[in-house]
Amino acid sequence: WFMPVSVPTWPGRTCVRKRWCATRREIGWPLAPALLDHAVMSVDLAAVCVFCGSNRGASPKYEQAASDVGRLLAEQGIRLEEAADLVKRALAQDSGNSAYLDSLGWTYFKRNQLADAREYLLKAVARGGHDPTILTHLGEVYYKMGRAADAIAAWEKALEASRHVLPADYEPDKVAGREKRLARRKAQVAG
Fold it and tell me: For 13-33, how does the pLDDT look when each residue is reduced to its tens digit (9 = 90+)?
């Protein structure tokens, strides 16, 4: 029933593990010890995809699960068409959800559909205010589009926003990573 997918390098492992475990609890699935031990390194995507497919739009917890699976697939760069379909399913139920808009924008980025990625990420920014992750994603899209000044502006906003999150949400490693990325990209643009 469970099909682990190896994810050797995963950004924000703690955050993803917490969200994944919460999603499994929400939909009433047990947290098997093997999954807890390898919650990020081995994700049971196949089982959740089957579950989401059989419960299309049943309630908010299923749309969240569909969005989470779509986002996880996109982060890994696999099954990107399926990832987009899952996130679109969630958006059909909650079209203004900034996290879903961000996930679809990031999926389009991974598919190299930069105009669509930009469109959805701008919608996510409009809905989600100053979410550091959304702004970081928007910066990546701008950078890949060759719009370095817009990319740097988005990354600067992301860095500033990441410094002003609630104390429980503050992730020093992410802030340091954003600072390094911004410095590196500025050097690339200048040099």
Answer: 444 455 556 655 665 555 554
